[in-house]
C-alpha cells in the first residue's frame, strides 16, 4: 500500500485508518486532524499534523482521502488544490458532495475524484461501501480506491453518481436505523413489564445475533424471517402489525426518501 493523505480522522476516517494499518499502511502516511485526541490511538504509526498548512511540502500521496464533515469541504478542499499537479486520486466519503462540486473546490476538472459512501461497521471490518469513479480516474486509481474501501469490509461500484444519494440513505445511515431498532424494541419490552436492563440486553443480543446469522446464512432475509414465524404463533401477530403497508414498509420508504433528499441538499 502506498503512503496516503487522510483529511479528517473522526469516526469514519479513524475506522478506515485502523483497517489500512492492518493492511500494511506505510508510516509515511500523513493524517490531518485538528483534534489530537482523535489520532492518539495511531501515535507513532502515521505522521500527524493539525492542519492542511502543515503537510510537508514535498509529500506526494497516491491517494487523498477526504473524511471531514461535508460542511468543511469549502474550507479544506481549496487548500488541497496544490496536490492535483501530482495526480493523486481523491477519495471522498463526505455525504452529498458531488464529484463536480469537489473538482470545482480543488481548482478544476484535472482533479481525479472517487466519491464513496461507507458505514460505521467499518470499525469492525464489516462495513459496506459503494463507490463512484469520476471522470479521468484511471483503472489503477480505481483499483487503489477499491483496496482502501475493502480494507474495512465489502464494496460495490456504481456507474451513475446519482445513486450515491440513496446509497447514503440505505447503507450509509442504515446502521443508525438498526441501532434505533434495539432502542425501541427494548422500550417495548419494558412496556410489557420486563426490567429495563434485561430488555436492553435481549434487544441488543437479538439484533447482533440476527445480523451474525444473516451474514453467515446462505438464506435470504425473507426466508430467515419465515423461519421464526410459526403459523398461528406469536411472531405472526407481531409481523401483522409491522408489515402493514402503512407501518414499516411505508415508514421506511419515507425515511429513506428523507435521507436521500438531504444527501442531495448537501451537494450545494
Ligand atoms: N458517521 C457515519 O456513519 C458516516 C459518515 N460519513 C461521512 O464521513 C464524514 C466524516 O463523518 P464522521 O467521521 O462521522 O465525522 P467526525 O466529526 O467524527 O469526523 C470528522 C473529523 O474531521 C476533523 N476535521 C474538521 N475540520 C478539518 C480539517 N480542516 N482538516 C482535517 N480534519 C478536519 C474533525 O476534527 C473530525 O475529527 C462526513 O462527511 C460524513 O458525511 C460517511 C458514511 C458514514
Ligand atoms: O448522517 C450523515 O450525514 C452521514 C452519512 C451517512 C451516515 N452518516
Automatic annotation (TrEMBL):
Protein's job: Catalyzes the reduction of 1-pyrroline-5-carboxylate (PCA) to L-proline.
Residues that span the membrane, as ranges: none
GO cellular component terms, A-Z: cytoplasm
Catalytic activity: L-proline + NADP(+) = (S)-1-pyrroline-5-carboxylate + NADPH + 2 H(+); L-proline + NAD(+) = (S)-1-pyrroline-5-carboxylate + NADH + 2 H(+)
UniProt keywords, alphabetically: Amino-acid biosynthesis, Cytoplasm, NADP, Oxidoreductase, Proline biosynthesis
This protein's name: Pyrroline-5-carboxylate reductase
Organism of derivation: Rhodovarius crocodyli
Keyword NADP: yes
PANTHER family xrefs: PYRROLINE-5-CARBOXYLATE REDUCTASE, PYRROLINE-5-CARBOXYLATE REDUCTASE 3
Pyrroline-5-carboxylate reductase catalytic N-terminal domain span: 6-96
This protein's pathway: Amino-acid biosynthesis; L-proline biosynthesis; L-proline from L-glutamate 5-semialdehyde: step 1/1
Tagged with keyword Glycoprotein: no
Listed EC numbers: 1.5.1.2
A Pfam cross-reference name: P5CR_dimer
Major location (coarse): cytoplasm
Domain Pyrroline-5-carboxylate reductase dimerisation, chain residue ranges per copy: 161-266
Residues the record lists as binding NADP(+): 7-12, 67-70
GO MF annotation, one: pyrroline-5-carboxylate reductase activity
Superkingdom in the source lineage: Bacteria
Localization annotation: Cytoplasm
Family: Belongs to the pyrroline-5-carboxylate reductase family.
GO biological process: L-proline biosynthetic process
Gene3D superfamilies linked to this entry: NAD(P)-binding Rossmann-like Domain (3.40.50.720), ProC C-terminal domain-like (1.10.3730.10)
